[in-house]
Write a structure and sequence with these properties.
Largest sheet: 6 strands, antiparallel
Helix content: 10-25%
Number of strands: 20
Structural class: alpha+beta
Number of helices: 10
Low-confidence stretches: none
Length: about 450
Amino acid sequence: MSEIIEILDKVFSKAAKIGENVAVFASKKLSRQVRFSVNKIDVSSEWHEYELNVLVEKDRKTQIFSISFQGLEQLDDILKKVEAALKLSPPKPYEAPLPEPSEKYPSIPDAFDEETLKDPSRLIKIANEAIDSALREGVKKVAGAVYSNAYWIGLKTTAGFEMTHSFTNNYLDVRVFHGPLETGHASMASRRLRNIDPWKVGETAAYYANLARNPKKFKAGEYSAVFSPDAVASILNFAGLMASAFAVIAGYSAFSQKLGQKVASEKFTLSDNPLVTDSFNPLIFDMEGVPTRNNVIIENGILKAYLHNRITAKLLNAEHTGNAGWVFPNPWNLVVGRGDMKFEEMISELGNGLIVGNVTYIRFQDYVKGEFSGVIRDGVILVKNGEPMHGVIGLRLSDNILRWLDNIRGVGKDQVQLYHWWLEMHTPVVSTYLLVDKARFTEAW
């Protein structure tokens, strides 16, 4: 951490000369990856990333910039430009100073897993085990990646906050193939590398691909459907986005003006909790030096809270929730409340409908109304009388996120933490299966 502290002190001393409110956030990241395709490892690599983010405010005017550590020789020139830009910037119509340090911050003793860093070859073993696991289930091709990351971060502000923190996280992402339209996908994430189960991930991906064999076109319509944890996580990434108070203020949230109102099924609860056991993002402070905490966003279908930084809290007369982002309050680690149904029970109760293994390329036609569509793939399966029959092609999920949430009939009891390529807001999710009635599907081609 000495490198982080040295950088914070150096940059802060210079920035504080031109600003009244100053915050300096520094991060160092060690990343390792192993990528594989067509049943063999292609790439094994390791790299470091260094990033410095600086907030400077004066006379209610704000400038924010980012550079790498290697760019520090340009710092004096950048600060001169920032000082000039502050003079030209329009002032904010409100006062929102950086928060003073809290008396107490969360403690996560195992946030940094030393074992994750000890043996880089463990990633190769995980990749090979995932490949072997899927091949044993009869698929033809296996592809994917294992990622392992270690973070060292620090923040210093003119409000008197100064703290460092370190943590690790890891994830495995697997996609398998019988043919181009007979695919399956699964993933798993943890801050401890030893908690990644490659055999389970490979088997799960192969399970969807095997059920998706002999795909047939299916007509558009409304069908009850069981959405896999991966599919659920992809959709809920946008629910997390819409819970940000900035999205509400900026006019692209379906949760706008719905605090205290029903926005989902009474069976559904969603929280943002970086402190949950084995959190992928075990953060203890946000970018304004406010302690992180468990924030219940939706409880038994009722919208309970937006996620705030100092500015959105000021504008909406709300409490800071520990989710800053200097501009955009972010969810750190979404958690779906545990339900009471096993996957097999959902399929049986589904009767006739679909299994949806993954939802990708989600796009909103109207954020405020919640209208969206997404490509469904990696195990879209027809179910008749509680029995999976064959793969389905030619459909696209085209629904409304409020309607989709409200139509949840069943919530799974088995949870899995996920982080993968298709989580477009880059928010990890402790996810589960959801049984959703009358999900809307349109023709894809």
